[in-house]
């Protein structure tokens, strides 16, 4: 490979200057933190929201505080017809798109024995089908324009830790990880990096209600969690995944939750160990 070849995000000194990003679901939570961190690093950002325009406007102001361009677009990404509008709006505003952050997602609580097909379809369409085909559209755009870009998926520890009352969510995230790996393999020849972030117990509207369960498990020694994560923790991991010299991999952002551990703190002594 020639020394002057554009290595994009595979360069040792990859920079976010002169970059433009689409961040889905970026009006709040993890997406908001990622949008702001990308602006801090030097990228222009398309802010996508579904319902809360005021929240998106607040993110836009924060992005612009770093002297970066920002544009807002309302789109429910589960409607595949909106994907062209997302890409066209970003391209028209910034002149190019070389970063896609597949972040938007939802969850619903439903006992696996009672879950309905409609509930299942809602999760799969939003969390798996939508980002899979948005990636397809943006990837083809990057290939056509010879852009050596980067695509990051916000994944979850739930892609490998089953929950019998959030089964559709877990299935959607497991499928999304495979989507990420498949695109990484297909796009490597075009110099496009594709990685994922396995977010753990993050203090957001999506998962805040579950934090006490994890804290109780940590207190009992079943898991290790130094603290609940913040959206900014995932944003920092996202930047790391973009700079990482690798593709098709998942970086953890779980605060130790996935570290194998079985400390039964109530079992201070076992009779069988006495001599």
Structure explained in plain terms:
- The protein has 275 residues and is of the alpha/beta class.
- The chain contains seven helices and seven strands.
- Helix 1 (29-41) links the parallel strand 1 and strand 2.
Residue share in helix: 25-40%
**Within the largest sheet, what's the order of strands?**
3-2-1-4-5-6-7
Q: Strand content of the residues, in percent?
A: 5-15%
N- to C-terminal separation?
67 Å
Query: Regarding CATH, which class?
Result: Alpha Beta
**Structural class by secondary-structure content:** alpha/beta
Largest sheet: 7 strands, parallel
- The averaged pLDDT comes out at 91
Low-confidence stretches: none
CATH names the topology as Rossmann fold
Whole-number total of structural domains: 1
- What is the H-and-E element order? EHEHEHEHEHEHHE
Gyration radius, rounded: 20 Å
Secondary-structure arrangement, i.e. CATH architecture? 3-Layer(aba) Sandwich
Number of helices: 7
Q: What general outline do the C-alpha atoms trace?
A: globular
CATH 4th-level superfamily: NAD(P)-binding Rossmann-like Domain
Oligomer: single chain
Beta-strand segment tally:
7
């Amino acid at each position: 490979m020639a020394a002057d070849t554009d290595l994009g995000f595979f360069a040792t000194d990859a920079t976010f200057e002169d970059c433009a990003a689409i961040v889905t679901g970026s009006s709040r939570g993890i997406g908001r933190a990622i949008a702001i961190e990308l602006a801090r690093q030097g990228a222009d950002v398309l802010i996508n929201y579904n319902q809360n325009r005021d929240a998106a406007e607040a993110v836009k102001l924060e992005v612009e505080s770093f002297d970066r361009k920002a544009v807002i677009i309302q789109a429910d990404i589960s409607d595949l017809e909106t994907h062209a509008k997302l890409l066209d709006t970003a391209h028209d505003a910034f002149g190019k798109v070389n970063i896609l952050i597949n972040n938007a997602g939802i969850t619903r609580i439903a006992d696996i024995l009672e879950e309905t097909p409609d509930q299942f379809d809602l999760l799969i369409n939003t969390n798996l089908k939508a980002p899979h085909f948005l990636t397809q559209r943006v990837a083809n755009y990057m290939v056509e324009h010879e852009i050596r870009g980067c695509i990051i998926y916000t994944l979850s520890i739930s892609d490998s830790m089953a929950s019998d009352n959030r089964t559709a969510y877990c299935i959607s995230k497991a499928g999304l990880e495979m989507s990420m790996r498949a695109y990484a393999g297909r796009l490597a020849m075009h110099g496009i990096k594709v990685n994922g972030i396995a977010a753990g117990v993050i203090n957001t509207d999506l998962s805040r209600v579950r934090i006490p369960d994890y804290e109780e498990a940590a207190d009992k020694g079943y898991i290790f969690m130094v603290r609940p994560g913040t959206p900014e923790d995932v944003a920092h991991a996202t930047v790391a995944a973009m700079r990482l010299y690798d593709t098709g991999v998942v970086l953890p952002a779980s605060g130790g939750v996935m570290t194998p551990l079985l400390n039964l703190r109530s079992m201070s002594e076992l009779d069988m160990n006495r001599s």
